Amino acid sequence: MFTKTYTHEGEGVTIKGRWTAELTDEFGNLKDRKEGDNLVVTNGKEYLANFLQSATTSAAQFTMNFVAVGSDNTAAALGNTALGTELARHTGTATYTSGAIYEVVATFEAGVGTGAIVEYGLFSANAGGTMLSRDIEDVINKGASDTLTVTAQITVG
Prior knowledge:
- The protein contains 1 helix and 9 strands.
- The protein has one helix at about 40-60; strands at about 15-25, 30-40, 65-70, 85-90, 95, 100-110, 115-125, 130-140, 145-155.
- Strands 4-3-7-8-2-1-9-6-5 form a 9-stranded antiparallel sheet.
């Protein structure tokens, strides 16, 4: 098998992520908003590469649309496979946005994921699964009657 590698300064595929979390009260009033870049972890990169191969051979469904929130503010690291302290996980709605952006939006309704939220993760399953990315932000204190909408964006550039 012959493999040829092309390297060009400033070119190549990169993957980066961005998170936005908006907390609203029971009346829909915005209480808090956090956003920031996240780390695409090693297992997430492996998952994407494996998906590209499996999709061509078996039309596999991409299931990286589960958003988790947690309360552990330990810095994100490439070797992360789970959140530090997961509070809740919810199936998000996945879309493609122009600019090579994969976006997942999940809403944590009143009574779900209540607490001091500082970490966010994008996963391939509703429990366990592979983590694609993780983010740590300043605390959002989600009360029992609050709703939290979390948007995860993965940009392939």
